[in-house]
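User: structure tokens for this one?
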Amino acid sequence: MKISLIIPIYNESAKIAACLEQLEKLPGDWEILFADGGCSDDTLTQIGGKYPVIACPKGRAKQMNCAAKHATSDVIWFVHCDSRLPVDAHAQISDAIEKGAQFGCFHIAFDYNGPFMGCNTYLSNRRAKKSHIAFGDQGIWMQRKLFLQQGGFPDLPIMEDYELSRRMKQQKIPLHVLPGCIVTSGRRYEKRFPLWTMWQMFWLRCLYRAGVDINEIARRYKDIR
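Assistant:
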């Protein structure tokens, strides 16, 4: 089974080398597509001709949707440039698809082990399993046909992953959480007390559900980062 791995990028000069090294060692049959939101540093130079780079409108949702239209396999997987991926990701996704799964993600861990981060990790994984809500840093994967039927990620400046999960949940399409773990950056938790940041992230989701203007939510999120 071939899987299209889509990575949105924007000025990833400090991260792209580690990403490329990881991809070279990732077993499986992959179609790897970088979704470029207009890099102005040397990110594209570092990628060179190793993998296709799709020129996309800037914005994570726009970039992922744009690249997904160029994907040629039946399964697409969206990951962040700075994520550390499970070595057996291909086998796990393939096995889930063959058993009938349409939509899923991985467990999450953080590269920062500060106070309350164990609690944060537990709650993040519990949310995915019990509430069927996945965030982008958990590596959302879907059958491409289903993704296109949904119109891709909602065109939002933030919460596009949250809203996609909510739509899947409304349609009773279950989220399949794979046992593997994606390690993601904990930098936003390092800047402030982790428990405070966790509360702020929860509050932003509450504001979104309450219908607060998405641009205001995006502004507040940038303050947290």
